Amino acid sequence: MALHLLANGMLSWVPVGDLARLVWGRNTEFFRKSVKRRLPSLKRHIALTYNHLLVVEYNDARGSASAVKIYDPSAATDVQSMQRMLKDMRNRKDGMLTYYEKVTGLSGIETDNGQ
Fold first, then answer.
1. How remote is the C-alpha of 71 from its chain's centroid?
2. Which range of residues forms the domain containing residue 43?
3. How many structural domains does the chain have?
4. CA nearest 15: which of 69, 79, 81, 88?
5. Number of C-beta neighbours around residue 92 at 10 A
6. pLDDT tens digits, residue range 7-39?
7. Does residue 113 form part of some domain?
8. Does the residue 53 lie in any domain?
9. Where are the alpha helices (DSSP H) in 1-115?
10. What tens digit of pLDDT does each residue of 35-90 get?
11. 63-90 in b/e burial notation, b at 16+ Cβ within 10 A?
12. Distance between CA atoms of 30 and 98, rounded to whole angstroms?
């Protein structure tokens, strides 16, 4: 999964269903949930092994992951998605939060941008 993301996730989002199809050969709800369950360890593996950060895109208010991408700090959508992901990591007390905040220069604390 990590090598697929490094090859295909630099410029575009890779849907969770594509990762399920890559690993298990099926894009069903069960296998998409299996991918989502493995995202924290995948983020950690890519960060520590390949020195890249993985950013997760959430599709609704429930916070279900829909796609993943290698983080590009020059892309506004990546920064926005990273801020939401950091906020979720802070709420879950994720052990990688400090590492992500340090590398990105962002924090999981919401700021009021007049929106």
1. 8
2. 2-104
3. 1
4. 69
5. 10
6. 988 889 999 999 999 999 999 999 999 999 999
7. no
8. yes
9. 2-8, 16-24, 29-50, 76-92, 97-104
10. 999 998 998 899 889 988 899 888 876 678 899 999 998 888 888 888 888 888 88
11. eebebbbbbbeeeeebbebbbbbbbbbe
12. 31
The answer to whether residue 112 scores a pLDDT higher than 70 is: no
CB under 8 Å to 28, separation ≥6 — which residues?
20
Question: Which pairs from 112-115 meet CB under 8 Å and 24+ separation?
Answer: none
Backbone angles phi, psi at 34, to 5 degrees: -65, -40
pLDDT in tens, 94-105: 888 888 888 888
Determine, yes or no, domain membership for 91: yes
* Burial of 98: CB neighbours in 10 Å, binned 0-12, 13-18, 19+: exposed
Residue 42 lies in a domain: yes
The residue among 4, 69, 78, 65 whose CA lies nearest residue 35 is 65
